[in-house]
Amino acid sequence: MKVELRGVRKVFGDTKALDGVDVHFEENKFYGLLGKNGAGKTTLMQLLAGHTLPTAGEVLLDGEAPFNNRDALKRVCLINESSNFKRRLKVKDVLKIASLFYPNWSRETAEYLMEKFNLKPGMSTRGLSKGMESALGIIIGLSARADVTIFDEPYIGLDASARYMFYDLLLEEFEEHPRTFILSTHLIDEVSRLFEEVVVLKEGEVLFQETAELMIEKSLKVSGTKEKVDAFTKGKTVIEESEMMGMKSALVYGEVLQLEDAKAFGLEAERSSMQTLMVHLTDQKEEKYA
Ligand SMILES: Nc1ncnc2c1ncn2[C@@H]1O[C@H](COP(=O)(O)OP(=O)(O)OP(=O)(O)O)[C@@H](O)[C@H]1O
């Protein structure tokens, strides 16, 4: 399923949640949707899932708007931060309802994941802990096998080992039953190995859309004497630097840079993590590194 937003604006009162967003998501690719708090990630995902209408512009799933479009919505599954199952239902009833809505629903996957997350069919949704609620959301998201599967920080309350199990399950599902995954998270380094492509939002706009590999190859953290670091970084875009007693380190971003080039300068050099890059790129006042 081809997914795109064209010139999308979404305004809430005086707040521009999205402001002229053009972005596309290809079939069967794994995307990270990143940005600081309030950047517009949830708004974008809700537009894709047809939960709301854009103020201007178009949201298109295979050329059709998802809002009020039952056929399109059956092919998209959005799992939120905490799905908040407010009604008094049993876990098995929630799964039954989901299975009736999503045409590609996999009962085997649901059963397998229930075991993995230790959820029992007879449990009442009211009595679930935050982590169990998140697990139930994840079970629905993966068992639905929707062409476009979107997770908006779905791990609230899950401990580290359950989160890593979730990432492994995502990878397993992606390999065995490819579909488009869009995952929004602030725990970037935990999951960045899964991303093929990254869409970064900043203040309601797309800062960039890039392959994860290229994003990392465009970063270089160098350290050494101030003199050598300054000589190496001259003419390059430094997004973060620090100095102490004549020694300096700098994070450079923007063009594909080789570790060997920095080492030939007598510097220590390494790639940045995606999380560190995101912190500095989205904190920049001007987008001078594009
Ligand atoms: N229903 C709403 N009513 C009013 N303002 C809203 C509403 N939904 C979102 N906003 C505002 O739109 C902006 C973007 O919010 P959004 O939730 O999309 O950001 P986000 O990137 O998902 O943030 P976070 O990482 O904190 O979840 C914020 O300023 C937010 O306050």
From TrEMBL:
GO MF term (any one): ATP hydrolysis activity
PROSITE patterns reported for this sequence: ABC_TRANSPORTER_2 (PS50893)
Keywords: ATP-binding, Nucleotide-binding, Transport
Keyword Lipoprotein in record: no
Ribonucleoprotein is among the record's keywords: no
Pfam family, one: ABC_tran
Descriptive protein name: ABC transporter ATP-binding protein
